Amino acid sequence: MEYKYELTIDKLLQSGVSSNPDQIINYTGKREFTFKDFSKRVNTLAKALISIGVKKGDRVAVIDWDTYVYLEAYFAVPMVDAVLHTVNVRYPQDLIYYTMDHAEDKYVIVRDEFVPILSKNREAFYFIKGWIVYSETGQIPDSLSPKYVYDDLMKESYSDIELPQLSENDLATTFYTSGTTGIPKGVQFTHRQIVLHSISSGLALADDPINLTSRDVIMPLVPMFHVHAWGVPYMSIMSGRRYVLPGRYDFDHIIDLIDKYNVSVIAMVPSILYLIVTNPNVKKIAGRGIKAIVGGGALPEGLANAAEKLGITAISGYGLSETAPILTLATYNERVKAMPESEKKKFRLKTGIPIPLVQLRVVDDKMNDVPKDEKTIGEIVVRAPWLTSVYVKNKEGTEALWRGDWMHTGDLAVMDEYGYIRIVDREKDAVKSGGEFIPSLVLEDAISSCSGVVENAVVGRPDEKWGERPVAFYTGTAKPDEIRKHLIEMVNAGRIAKFWIPDDFINIKEFAKTSTGKIDKKVLREMIKK
Amino acid sequence: MEYKYELTIDKLLQSGVSSNPDQIINYTGKREFTFKDFSKRVNTLAKALISIGVKKGDRVAVIDWDTYVYLEAYFAVPMVDAVLHTVNVRYPQDLIYYTMDHAEDKYVIVRDEFVPILSKNREAFYFIKGWIVYSETGQIPDSLSPKYVYDDLMKESYSDIELPQLSENDLATTFYTSGTTGIPKGVQFTHRQIVLHSISSGLALADDPINLTSRDVIMPLVPMFHVHAWGVPYMSIMSGRRYVLPGRYDFDHIIDLIDKYNVSVIAMVPSILYLIVTNPNVKKIAGRGIKAIVGGGALPEGLANAAEKLGITAISGYGLSETAPILTLATYNERVKAMPESEKKKFRLKTGIPIPLVQLRVVDDKMNDVPKDEKTIGEIVVRAPWLTSVYVKNKEGTEALWRGDWMHTGDLAVMDEYGYIRIVDREKDAVKSGGEFIPSLVLEDAISSCSGVVENAVVGRPDEKWGERPVAFYTGTAKPDEIRKHLIEMVNAGRIAKFWIPDDFINIKEFAKTSTGKIDKKVLREMIKK
């Protein structure tokens, strides 16, 4: 029988260890692991998971900040042929529950801080067979059962347990996205998809002006529950890069980490970059030639300029939860390379050029490519080796996503003669604040439950800090403060997240409607344009 | 039906074109193509191949120097689901015929200069259905039929021809290697293997001291018949790098090309680097910070030093024809990165560390890993997503190659604590001169046919310029000049290549034999050690 090499996640870890055994993973300044030692820990965790009963295909959820435990789970869970569910901890309690139930999670790795929000609802989690709890303080909460203690599991040797053979088309990860307006949709990725995304994105980042190489120290500031932190952990460890985990985001501390550990490449949404460049301590890291990959929203020129004054070169990237995520990066191609520095900057702010293996088109509604005139708007459709093949248990959504065998991003863009695309609008009505989608349908539903509200609609208003902030329009007799108070109650009940609460509530007489009778949000957006 | 992304060679070309449409391919200073135009030419050639009858699985041979025609065939042949056979033009006529017959070639793309050696033997090529001849002088030789003229084929539009759907596991390329002592063995690679090799090797080359990026201009000086020119053409075009094709190797001209087109990265065997650094014109390109990837034989320290004086940073790479080829590169990992420049150099001369996705072990004869003590010698065995699964029509060879589901390289190495391997010897008896294996069995057979030779054996003698040169030992009454004359006749008859003729013929009384009665070549090698 012929040997077949499977593109599986264990190979990523092995590659990092064999080429760079002494490379370092630093956890928020508190702990350091060499790749060699980290790999041993991952193997122990994998065997521990088997020892407590985790089986092929079981969904194992992680509820955590960006910690070494999360990173261990990134590898260990797929390595036992289970499926890593990276739970969005910024969801309200209700949606956390909804996604865990929908994913059919069986085991959960959870940091002590998150235990209380899970314990409130213990009976509802009847489907969970084991809670693996960890704490950095040594105080393990006792309210969940059956309970395992992470550090205890990591003490054993499991010498009689062997890791399973993996196939590249086995599922490795799943998570939920509120990419559209409705309730979260599950996406899922195979081992093969993650391996291919890792090597291709790593290769694309070698280009200017990022020029990622073994000299760099990487710290993604993209939550690890968010599309594999854009794949940076897998990519970095595979290619032996020094890696810093920020833990829970605290921007004073993050700047200290960048300073102390010479972090040279960061990745984040625009609002996080904003929080860094406006932090009073940012001078500490000025003038070091840090490179920032900015995605999850357009990179505003003002922000890029502010970063540049601090010696931070920011470039755009683009992708979706559905696309694992990287599709494009605004690196310099031959034409841009030859331009003066001031011209190049314009291209860094564009959405970018496709990374290797991505097939990207901007098409009209008959699926014809639009001309490369930087004017004609079309939808971005893509093919790549790392796109979710389905929305979990959602046939209709899947069919819409993949109509005509191209993945429809719902993003509207123009293309220039140099091959760069620039997103000009989203087809969908979602509001994106601080890189997180706010599901407007869920929010509108919450607003509608306030007495005195007849009709309502939420749209995004451009915001320097957050990219967009929600604004609610409504008809009826309710006062803005009443609605706000109502929504705070819903936050406390775990129904919505606090950052979803609209900045403004605007009472109007009547909504303009589209031909199909829906509220015309374009009109509303026009009304609040600055 | 779910859309499945196939890892096929057309995607490499599309990636280069979509991210970098105006990038340039320069053919030896004579012609230039943008990626966009090159892609159109490839599509035309592909359709032309279909128009003359090329079908899925047909072997299409190319006999050429490193030209734009070759590069077009690299893409176009696999894109019609045919198999590109890159014929070794340094083989004697007999072996060229042998490999084309063994591969069952059906079509041949051939440069005018090579037509005469094929025409001698026309009837023997009964299996060839079409010869596609091209000439840069416009003088198309008429001695082969059925004959097509390349430039004529490229003039048509073929608007009614569609390219086939490709599967990633379809064969894309095949070629022959004299890696061992015997007659050439065929290896073969699928689309998937070549795509994965391209992205992984590109990623590995991003590391120091090569640090390959979009700024670089690449000119491989590895013949295109030789393991896909180490995969550099596929890798470079996929990632949008500027690419220079040297044509037929002429070192004065090559230095001019480096000078004129600012070539910054070259790749070659040690003897080619030797020819460059000793060329009287090399001063033209001194001090430019050129980077050289050196493989196909150990990189001697003296040569690396000579290169360094010219500002050329040379690093080792390692691979086999069987491995597509790259397995390791001597880039700097975390430990080496921290060393002073003088220390780093030692590591650049080692065989290297595995590139992403390569699993490489140094094992004893019970398949246990040897300790990383830089002393214990073991055989290098590998797994990677780009290894030939078979020797063509050679079950026994395939089984030996893949025993225990690891590919056995036959190369003996030690490993250090930093993860770097260093090859110390080859298990096999082959002689390697100027990066080309000389099949000693074939050569010994030729020598034995000289009257007055009783027994004979050929071994390699270390050589500053060529790496190794063959030396023949023999018993009997023949005089060295008689044997040399006999071999020259065999060169003229196309039985052996001229560069195979041993530098010395040493007459001895008797051969030392091994326990199994074979000539003990170790003893002979000792005798000629300098």
- For the biggest β-sheet of chain A, the strand order reads 2-1-11-10-12-13-14-15-16
- Unreliable segments of chain A (pLDDT under 50, ≥5 consecutive)? none
CATH first level of the largest domain in chain A:
Alpha Beta
The level of helicity of chain A is 25-40%
Find the structural class of chain A using helix and strand composition. alpha/beta
Task: Tell me the Rg of chain A in angstroms.
Answer: 23 Å
Give the largest interface.
Answer: A-B, 59 and 59 residues
Number of helices of chain A: 18
- Number of E-state strands of chain A: 25
- CATH fold-type name of the largest domain in chain A: Rossmann fold
Give the name of the CATH superfamily of the largest domain in chain A: ANL, N-terminal domain
Name the beta content range of chain A: 15-25%
Q: In angstroms, what separates the terminal alpha carbons of chain A?
A: 67 Å
Q: What quaternary form is this?
A: homodimer
Question: What's the CATH architecture of the largest domain in chain A?
Answer: 3-Layer(aba) Sandwich
Biggest beta sheet summary of chain A: 9 strands, mixed
Describe the global form of chain A.
globular
Q: Count the domains of chain A.
A: 2
Mean pLDDT of chain A: 93
Q: What does this protein structure show overall?
A:
- Two copies of one chain form a homodimer.
- Chain A has 530 residues and is α/β, with parallel strands linked by helices.
- Chain A folds into two domains: 9-309, ANL, N-terminal domain (Rossmann fold); 431-528, GMP Synthetase, Chain A, domain 3, CATH 3.30.300.30.
- Helix content of chain A is 30%, strand content 25%.
- The first copy, chain A, has 18 helices and 25 strands.
- In chain A, the strands form five sheets. The first copy, chain A, has a nine-stranded mixed sheet with strand order 2-1-11-10-12-13-14-15-16.
- In chain A, a hairpin with a 5-residue loop joins strand 19 and strand 20.
- In chain A, helix 1 crosses helix 9, helix 2 packs across helix 3 and helix 7 packs across helix 9 (232-238).
- The longest helix of chain A is centred in the N-terminal third of the chain and has 17 residues, at 35-51.
- Chain A is globular.
- In chain A, 55% of the residues are buried.
- The interface between A and B is large, with 59 and 59 residues.
